[in-house]
């Protein structure tokens, strides 16, 4: 630090007395050496960075000016300023027509939105721009940073297996460079990439309940020889270890490890993982029978949500604990307050998930497949290239034929499984409905619970779900009840939200009709959708497959085949 101050004093004096000489002869690497060893978000470095930026502006050296703005985002401790500097970097990069450089700054801006704001929609928009400009570039480091960021979005959306594929690619790329003998900056960046990829892949494995794999990865990260040099990454892995030991019911160790990681998250304003850590500390206190301490943690998680308007599905159960607690305390005002907050959190998740899911698959995954196809088509068409393409085509045809055969078998199995369920339902003498004993799992009062149980039973019996455009507000009015209570009852008893509950009733109803009455096998998809109250044919097809595990067209085809076979047997017997 003393060396940097002395260096800067001489540098500044020479700049004051002979600016022409300093701008003409001093290289940018020397200017950066004054501040490059400052810690991230150390605003003292900005004083030096601004001189670097001024130099690049006067010389109209746009690549170096971009570097200056990137450095400013790194050393600024104000997240709004970080975005401002990133915007300047983007505008300047476009003046260079250097696609690789433009891609880099879009990726930087997306990462700022992700890390400091947890604004996934804005982050993904920047990542997709970065991807567009990165095509055909030779910078593998940039390529794998984009792969990593897309993995983060997929993990957030719950596409954990796809996320695992992304992070495995990143680990394969970063690990050798982190343990190699390259330049210290390459080793530093690769080590961060490696440790962050370990953290994220462990999160994915935990969410698909492969705890053994997650534990192995976490331990590998914490044993890494340079882990102490990377406090942020160590905190992430320590947090993962805390959640892991919670699942093994070692609640005291879980609390210790999670509390150990929190100071780093709070210092870096990483409210995503701070909320997750607080949530699992609360659950650990519950495991120890310390309910009051648990509620303090859950209310802390809620406070973060109210401030940031951000939540992840993993901690949505936070509100169920609070609702149950205040119900038992007979504090109806608090119970209703947290019921409303639960609905608000759920609506935010639904909004984000729809947008992100469409964009990530349409604008990223589909383009990758298209590019792969284009590269195959533009390969050398003569000689050995032709042979390779022909062999590739034959292999693809064989693979498609095998997949078609396998898919046909899977459709047949799914149909038989669905048919068996329908037959069992028909053999029941009365509607299967939840008994009052389920009330023990609800946070509602017994009177409200029983009232909603009777009304919903009548609603289902009378097929009220067939009404097109039915909303929870509309149904609550029909049943003469409160929509918050209605939502809570459906969540408690059915184990799903209102939308899923309504979709399941509609699809089960139309599936039964299609199985029992040949008339419905003749209808088009839109006709089937209209019959059960679903407005969109695409939405109907998606829901039918999601709930039944088979597309409506495949169900119709299998049912017709079966009925033709039955007709042939009957004709032969008569």
Automatic annotation (TrEMBL):
GO molecular function terms attached to this record: DNA-binding transcription factor activity; sequence-specific DNA binding
Superkingdom of origin organism: Bacteria
Domain HTH araC/xylS-type: 446-558
Membrane-crossing segments per the record: 382-405
Keywords, in A-Z order: Membrane, Transmembrane, Transmembrane helix
Pfam families: HTH_18
Keyword Iron-sulfur: no
Protein name: AraC family transcriptional regulator
């Amino acid at each position: 630090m003393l060396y940097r101050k002395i260096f800067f004093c001489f540098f500044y004096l020479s700049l004051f007395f002979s600016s022409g000489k300093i701008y003409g002869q001093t290289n940018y690497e020397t200017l950066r050496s004054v501040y490059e060893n400052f810690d991230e978000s150390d605003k003292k470095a900005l004083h030096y960075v601004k001189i670097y930026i001024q130099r690049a502006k006067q010389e109209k050296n746009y690549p170096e000016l971009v570097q200056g703005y990137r450095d400013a985002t790194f050393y600024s401790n104000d997240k709004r300023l970080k975005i401002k500097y990133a915007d300047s970097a983007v505008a300047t990069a476009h003046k260079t027509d250097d696609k690789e450089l433009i891609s880099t700054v879009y990726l930087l801006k997306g990462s700022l939105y992700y890390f400091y704001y947890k604004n996934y929609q804005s982050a993904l928009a920047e990542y997709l721009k970065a991807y567009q400009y990165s095509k055909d570039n030779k910078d593998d480091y940039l390529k794998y940073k984009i792969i990593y960021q897309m993995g983060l979005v997929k993990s957030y959306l719950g596409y954990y297996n796809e996320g695992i594929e992304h992070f495995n690619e990143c680990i394969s790329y970063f690990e050798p460079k982190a343990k190699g003998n390259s330049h210290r900056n390459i080793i530093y960046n690769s080590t961060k990439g490696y440790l962050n990829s370990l953290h994220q892949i462990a999160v994915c494995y935990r969410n698909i309940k492969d705890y053994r794999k997650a534990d192995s990865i976490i331990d590998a990260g914490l044993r890494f020889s340079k882990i102490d040099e990377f406090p942020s990454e160590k905190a992430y892995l320590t947090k993962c270890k805390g959640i892991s030991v919670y699942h093994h019911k070692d609640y005291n160790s879980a609390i210790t490890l999670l509390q150990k990681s929190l100071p780093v998250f709070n210092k870096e304003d990483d409210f995503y993982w701070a909320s997750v850590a607080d949530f699992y500390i609360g659950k650990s206190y519950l495991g120890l029978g310390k309910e009051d301490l648990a509620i303090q943690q859950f209310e802390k998680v809620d406070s973060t949500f109210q401030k940031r308007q951000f939540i992840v599905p993993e901690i949505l159960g936070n509100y169920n604990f609070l609702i149950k607690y205040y119900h038992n305390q007979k504090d109806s005002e608090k119970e209703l307050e947290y019921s409303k907050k639960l609905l608000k959190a759920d609506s935010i998740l639904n909004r984000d998930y729809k947008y992100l899911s469409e964009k990530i698959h349409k604008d990223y995954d589909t383009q990758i497949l298209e590019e792969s196809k284009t590269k195959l088509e533009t390969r050398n068409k003569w000689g050995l290239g032709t042979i390779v393409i022909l062999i590739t085509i034959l292999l693809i045809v064989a693979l498609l034929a095998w997949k078609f055969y396998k898919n046909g078998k899977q459709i047949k199995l799914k149909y038989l499984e669905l048919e068996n369920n329908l037959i069992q339902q028909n053999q029941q003498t009365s509607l299967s409905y939840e008994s009052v004993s389920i009330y023990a799992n609800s946070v509602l009062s017994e009177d409200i619970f029983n009232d909603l149980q009777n009304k919903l039973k009548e609603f289902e019996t009378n097929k009220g779900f067939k009404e097109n455009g039915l909303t929870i507000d509309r149904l609550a009015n029909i049943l003469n009840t409160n929509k918050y209570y209605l939502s809570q009852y459906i969540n408690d008893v059915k184990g799903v939200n209102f939308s899923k509950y309504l979709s399941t009733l509609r699809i089960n109803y139309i599936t039964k009709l299609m199985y029992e009455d040949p008339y419905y096998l003749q209808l088009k998809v839109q006709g089937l959708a209209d019959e059960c109250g679903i407005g969109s044919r695409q939405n109907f097809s998606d829901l039918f497959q999601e709930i039944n595990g088979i597309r409506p067209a495949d169900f119709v085809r299998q049912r017709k085949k079966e009925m033709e076979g039955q007709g042939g047997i009957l004709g032969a017997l008569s």
